[in-house]
Amino acid sequence: MKKKILSVLLATGMTATLLVGCTGGAGGGGKKVGVAMPTKDLQRWNQDGQNMEKQLKEAGYTVDLQYASNDINTQVTQIENMIASGCDVLVIASIDGDSLGTVLAQAKEKNIPVIAYDRLIMNSDAVTYYATFDNYMVGTKQGEYIEEKLGLKDGNGPYNMEVFTGDPGDNNARFFYGGAIDVLNPYIENGQIVIPSGQLDFDTVATANWASDAAQSRMEAIISANYADGTKLDAVLCSNDSTAFGVTNALVANYTGEYPIITGQDCDIANVKNMLDGKQSMSIFKDTRDLASKTVEMVDAILKGTDAPVNDTTTYNNGVKVVPSYLCEPKFADVSNYKTLLIDSGYYTEDQLK
Ligand code: BGC
What we know:
It is built from 12 helices and 13 strands. The protein is of the alpha/beta class. α9 links the parallel β9 (about 235-240) and β10 (about 260). The longest helix has 19 residues, at about 170-190. The chain starts with a helix and ends in a 10-residue tail after the last helix.
């Protein structure tokens, strides 16, 4: 069953990517790297951009960092400009993994290597490497959290659960969803987990642009149709923090029962605060400093003509090729370990979380 779900996901998946550099040569030395990020709206991409810019500059590169307000055409234009202005490598966190084929063909024609950053770029043979976190593992950890907290292995239940995942144009969303549902599906099938809304398939539980307000509206509708009579909601599987944030807002305003388990991902500051307030149960910590440093190593290797760091050469088929990937390790975070993970490591200051 696990294999089956994942293979369906992979067959239908889409993504976003990081496009790096342009002109080749021995790393640093003023070579120019174009870094295309999806949006400033979510905290994580601001951190990714800052980390990339800082670490690339420290390594001696010139950086052209652009954010595209989640607008696909804007991102395409930004990448065209990076190509035209002589970038040596492109690092791209795509908005829609399927929309960059034409512009990346231009990059390939000019021998500009492309690194897909965090989100895979689909259906393009111009993608050189992919740097990301183990996206399936993110979902597995979220599913296992719900499994453990509800005592599902002990046969407890039935429990009521609802599901929110991310943007259908983001290949990662299918991995997060697949990892979690592969853990939880046996309990859905045997009745220990019930989905009162009946909304479970990927397309129904997807959230366009990962938008908090869209997740909030959907949760509000689910509450009024299924929980207004006092039915207890036990868990909400949310693939990331922006969807968890919308779900939490809907619950705060419209649900009076005991608070459900809510999962998340990214450890965004607003969500860590919600965790400390008991409004979100857990998040997944993806240290964007690690992702940036792996990506900078890839840029260096590409420009020096050496082998880039890669630890997965089978998982990420973008429809045209299996893209050699480096998967960083996602970590589970909740109130018990956030200090070590987030504060002691220097990711946030204590003040930021007040
Ligand atoms: C990233 C997540 C993020 C989501 C929304 C995904 O591609 O991997 O970390 O929460 O996009 O921006």
